[in-house]
Design brief:
By secondary structure, the chain is mainly α. 64% of the residues lie in helices and 12% in strands. A three-stranded antiparallel β-sheet has the order 1-2-3. It is elongated. The N and C termini lie far apart (73 Å).
Length: 188
């Protein structure tokens, strides 16, 4: 029952999951219908002895449990694959990762997750059309402009997050080099 409640929250509550895992979504719908039907029958029988007298109830519940376990494993495998492609996904939980993947086209909705994946970063700065990242902001609110824009539109989330990370390093390196040049001028 706990497994069904967890998966029901994922598959029923998110249209994004339906797109990401259509096969598992269809499987879950069938299992859910059967499970809810069984629970309605069981709820009408407050006595345990009445419940165990329902024909094949144990076999049916064991089969549903096995199917729910398979769906949860497929979901876990999918998330693990995403984490292997972009290791910073290991810093977020399964629910957050599903939210990130599901909202990959809406970068503004991802803002709360950046601080979990990147230490010291709280938000990213986008162009007005939300198609390019032009900088980041630190926890203290300090803006860090990027030397080059990172394209978000039309890119897979793993690709633009990798580019975001790379450009962060490049831009911070250039800013540090510019600072050391300024310090050297100040000293002379």
């Amino acid at each position: 029952q706990r497994r069904w409640v967890y998966l029901d929250g994922l598959f029923s509550g998110s249209a994004d999951i339906k797109q990401l895992l259509p096969k598992q979504t269809d499987q879950f719908k069938g299992i859910s219908n059967e499970f809810v039907g069984k629970m309605k029958v069981v709820s009408g029988k407050p006595n345990v002895l009445d419940v165990i007298s329902i024909p094949k109830v144990q076999e049916s519940m064991e089969r549903l449990h096995t199917l729910l376990t398979q769906i949860q494993k497929a979901l876990g495998d999918y998330l693990e694959k995403q984490r292997a492609e972009f290791p910073r996904f290991y810093f977020v939980g399964d629910d957050d990762l599903l939210d990130i993947i599901g909202n990959s086209k809406n970068v503004e909705r991802l803002q709360p997750h950046f601080k979990k994946m990147f230490a010291g970063l709280t938000s990213i700065t986008l162009t007005e059309d939300h198609e390019h990242i032009v900088g980041v902001a630190s926890r203290e609110g300090e803006p860090v402009p990027y030397a080059s824009e990172v394209q978000v539109a039309g890119q897979r989330i793993n690709s633009w997050l990798t580019a975001l990370e790379k450009e962060m390093k490049v831009s911070l390196g250039k800013l540090l080099a510019a600072c050391t040049t300024q310090v050297d001028k100040f000293r002379t």
